[in-house]
Write a structure and sequence with these properties.
Strands 10, 11, 12, 13, 14, 15, 16, 17, 18 and 19 form a 10-stranded antiparallel β-sheet that branches. The chain has a 5-stranded antiparallel β-sheet with strand order 2-3-4-7-8, with no helix packed on it. The two termini are 19 Å apart. β7 and β8 form a beta hairpin. The chain is 0% helix and 56% strand. 38% of the residues are buried. It is built from no helices and 19 strands. The chain is mainly beta.
Length: 220
Amino acid sequence: QRQMCIRDRRSAAGTVEVDGAGNLTQVEANNGTTFSIGSASTVNTGQDAASGLRWGRWAGGNAQQATAGGAATNVDLSQSSLHWVVGPPGNGPVALPTTGTRSFTVVGNTDPTDGAGNVGTFGNATLSADFTASSVQTAVDFSLNGDVWASGAGAGAINGSTFSGDFQNATITGPAGNITDGTGEFSGFFTPNADAAGLSYGLEANGGAVGADRASGVVV
């Protein structure tokens, strides 16, 4: 059993399959929907030896999506990517602190991408957890297609070993200094004892949720 999250206008967690290198090849979400790599390629991979977390993205070709009991359909990744982060193998529930706070430092990430084939440069991310209040706060920034994306402060809740929340005050600053407001969401999970965390994020410009108006990635 592994923890994981996957991001490209969707998030999921469930049973996963990996290849010999530990890279994701298939995930069955809790609602029974299955995503598999299909003819896409695994790129932009990395790993953290201390925590056992691995990350990367599927790009190019077609991934496969199938609902429970349904036929598989293609997910075109010729102009977009499906980002993932996978935890180490484990058995049973993940034990976390029940009190106190913790702040995390970035150790790895995928390059942010949009739905128009652009690949950006990751800037930074913050993540802090309040286990007494079962809450998290996070923020992420990056550059993509000449724009600077900033999520603003995001707040969310811890549920078991996972967490999720929203960005309400994202901004996308263009080369000429023009600013477009945006929103977004994030989700993720903690490894045992909250020694590390995997975070997925998605941001979109207000009024546009496709193409270059939508960006995503994952951070460890």
